[in-house]
């Protein structure tokens, strides 16, 4: 089921799967310029055992724009309000990229969170991260003659990163854009999205990590994005691994985009094992 939920001063677009009718809800939180479909493969895998929800962060997909100034804390407050609207007593948070920061901050503030899974997110961003991300935000300012033209650009970009194109990828990119005044443009606001990214560098890592008292599974992607450089360095997770009391981590030789856009059977098994532990 896909629909809108009203929270304070905005509406969020959610995709809620209730197939398992479980008491614990798995909440999947996408990355900086993504949308809820970015989490499709993981949501599909988990939906036979858990009720799940993915959603468009504010400023993405069919959710309302985030408020200015934008930052991770605003998205965390959105998530806490969203969870308060859903009829579940316990939550498992699965955060990818920027979603990892949001998941950790929400877990530090909410007793109902049981476990956290971080898909290459929540660590310390460095200069390489900025050099890789900021140029990619340029597409948010561009217009395209058609959805097909946008899709072709994204297919070329993602293909160079090892992403296997599929009907799911078609849905991902089509959900990112809107046709206005005879042209196609991204639904996200460039300036607000850039503010979201810049808030990675103001994130209070020590304060939040020290308040996480639930089990955490951290997945680190070591695959290169450009010039043998991953989006987040493995070293950038050192502080998290030394501060969060109950954390286990694994590295995968895939890049930051392959982890969500290609199906990951081995990683699914690791997540299953982690979630099944008492």
UniProtKB/TrEMBL annotation:
GO terms assigned for molecular function: hydrolase activity
Originating species: Salinicoccus roseus
Residue ranges occupied by any AB hydrolase-1 domain in the UniProt entry: 25-125
Keywords for this protein: Hydrolase
GO cellular component: membrane
InterPro entries linked to this entry: AB_hydrolase_1, AB_hydrolase_fold, AB_hydrolase_sf
Name this protein carries in UniProt: Alpha/beta hydrolase
Family recorded in the similarity comment: Belongs to the AB hydrolase superfamily.
Superkingdom of origin organism: Bacteria
